[in-house]
Amino acid sequence: MIVSFNYRNRHSLLERLDPRARWIFSLLVLFAITMFWDVRFLLFFLALTLGQYYLARLTWRETRRAWYFVFFIMTTMVVVNTIITSSGTIGAAMKGTHTVIFHQFTIPITGWIWELNLTVERLWFAVTQVTRILSISALFLVIPFTMDPRQYGATFRGMGLPDRLAYTLDLAFRFVPTLGRDFQLTLDAQRARGYEVEKVEGGLFTQIRKMAPLVVPVTMNAILSGEDYANAMDLRCFGLRKRTWIEKLTYHWRDYLWIGFGALLLIASVVLSLLGYGEFWVPSILLQ
User: Fold this and answer.
1) Domain residue limits, the chain
2) pTM tops 0.85
C-alpha cells in the first residue's frame, strides 16, 4: 500500500490557490532564478521564496528532515565541487587574475602538501551557489507539505500531461514516504529478531555489509511493489483512452494573478539577462 507525505490543511493563502497555478508559478520562478549568478539578484529570489514559505505556515519541526537533506546535498556540492576541486565553478569566476587567500595547505603529521589554490572568487561563488540552492529548495519544499496528495494526478493532468505521465508523477511523489515507511517496518522487524543497528561497527565496507539486512529487503520490496503497480495498471488498460479524475480543479482570479506574477518575474529576468545583468559578481571590497 502506498502512502503520502503528512498533510493537514493549515488554511494558508497558498492552499487557497489552484495546485496547477502553484506548480506553474514555481516553474516560472525556477527558470528566472537560473538566469542569474549575481548574488544581489539571488537574494531577492531567496527573500521571495522564504516569503512563500512563511505564507505556507510551515514549522521547522515539520520540515527539518527535508532541510537536513538539502543541507547535506548543498554542503557536498559546495565543498567538493567549488572549494576543493572548483569543477562546479562557472568559467567567468575562474578567468583573469584572482585574489589568492592561500595557495597550498600542509596536512598535519604527514607533512603532505595539498595544492588548494583557494581564492576570494571561489569562496564568493560558493556563497552565490548556496544562495541559489536555498532559493530553489525553499521554492519547491512547500509543495509536498501544503498540497493535498489526492490532487497530484489531477494537477499534472490538468497541466496538459498525458494520463500515464500524470499518474507516474503521482506515484513518484508517493514513493519517498512509502520507502520511508517500508524502511521503518523492516528496521522494527529486524530489531525484534535481535538486530541492533546502533552497534554496527568496523570500517566503511564492513558497515555497508552489516546494513544488508535493512537495505536488501527494502530494495527488493520497492522493486516488487513497482511491478505490482505496473501490472495492476496494465490489467485495467490504463492509458489506452482518456481517463477521468475524481478531483475537479477550477481556476479562479487569484490563480491567474499568481501565474501572471510568476510570468512577470521570468520576463523581467530574461530582459535583464539579455541586457548583461546577472553575471557572476564579486564585491570590490573583498578584492582589496
Assistant:
1) 1-148+253-282, 163-238
2) no
